[in-house]
Amino acid sequence: MCHNRARSEAESMKTVQSWIEVLVEANEICPEALHTLSAALVDHGACGAILDQGTPEADPAGPPPCQACGHLTRLKVYFPAAGHTIEEVLSLVDRTATQSKEIYDGLVVRVLRIHTIDCGDWAERWKACFPPKRVSTRLLVVPPWDIPAVPPDCIPIFLEPGRAFGTGQHPSTALCLELLDGIAQTQGGLPHSFLDVGYGSGILCIAAQKLGATHIVGVDIDQDVAEDALRNFAHNHVNNKIRLVTGPLECIRRRFDMVTANLDFRLLTQSVGHMKELIHRNGGLIISGILEEEAPEILHLFQRTGFHTEDERTLEEWTALYMRRKDNG
Question: SS3 sequence, the chain?
Fold first, then answer.
């Protein structure tokens, strides 16, 4: 008994600084399938899931990668080793993949490699996946550990990826940033008041402040992302210029000149009526997180609710819409 307890304590000390990395390969039958898979793994305890940008070596003990399934994408998923064994994580990934296959016919998922890495290795792997990226005419997303010489025509957003969604790497976020920059250039800056629904990493709030908005609020139901957003506010010296609210959209009582909502199809359709009530007449709304095939239905719903479309943009099968609330809507 004493021997087992000593071993358990030693393992706990080790796993505080350790992570279980799972390398998963899936055929990219549609972008939403991979998004659903990675989101489900995060819901089940993963601290993050990232696209593997390189060409990792296949597990030498396993079969070679199958090229018969079409275009393949690899994800690296990270679980804290504290409280998880490799066997438990492998079983969890298998169950989650099976559930995703029931939703998306034809989805093929397999685990290529699973192993434990220390905290330093995990941090470095995250950093390698977030190089500086120009996401619009002027906006440049810059990780604080890799600050390049910023061109004079660029507006930098310093962002440290954490547990929160929104780094500018995903097309849905990039489209929001592109639209915000375009509106600011056309109007000589963003309007006074700005609300971001589902603020995540805080990237859209930061962009709004740097593009001219002066009263900025972010609302998110996930209280755990506030720490990541506040850290990013500090990197950009906007700590005292943005207010964060934890809770549902109904917590917001006032109206805004501009609202952004980078959500999924279900959340957008559920919240269209309340979002309308949060926007001044003729105020602007940017919605994103929409797949191309979903865009017509979303567009029809928002137009029927009292919006007219100003701009529609698509990137890698994702669509974002810029709308205005009608004067008489």
Answer: CHHHHHHHHHHHHHHCCEEEEEEEEEECCCHHHHHHHHHHHHHCCCCEEEECCCCCCCCCCCCCCCCCCCCEEEEEEEEECCCCCHHHHHHHHHHHHHHHHHHCCCCCEEEEEEEEEEHHHHHHHHHHCCCCEECCCCEEEECCCCCCCCCCCCEEEECCCCCCCCCCCCHHHHHHHHHHHHHHHHHCCCCCEEEEECCCCCHHHHHHHHCCCCEEEEEECCHHHHHHHHHHHHHCCCHHHEEEEECCHHHCCCCEEEEEEECCHHHHHHHHHHHHHCEEEEEEEEEEEEEHHHHHHHHHHHHHHCEEEEEEEEECCEEEEEEEECCCC
Measured torsion, CA atoms of residues 269, 274, 278, 280, in degrees rounded to the nearest 10: 80
Q: Cα–Cα distance between 177 and 182 in angstroms, integer? A: 9
Domain extents for the chain?
Answer: 2-126, 131-325
| More confident call, 13 vs 69 | 69
Q: What is the pLDDT of residues 31-40, one digit of tens each?
A: 677 777 877 8
- Which pLDDT score is estimated for 178? 96
Check whether 13 has a pLDDT greater than 60.
no
pLDDT of 11 reads 31
CATH superfamily of 2-126: Ribosomal protein S10 (3.30.70.600)
Query: What per-residue confidence (pLDDT) applies to 225?
Result: 80
Q: Say yes or no: do domains 2-126 and 131-325 share a fold.
A: no
pLDDT at residue 59 greater than cutoff 50: no
Q: Which of these CATH numbers, 2.30.30.140, 3.40.50.150, 3.30.70.100, 3.40.50.1820, describes 131-325?
A: 3.40.50.150
* C-alpha–C-alpha distance, residues 148 and 181, integer Å: 21
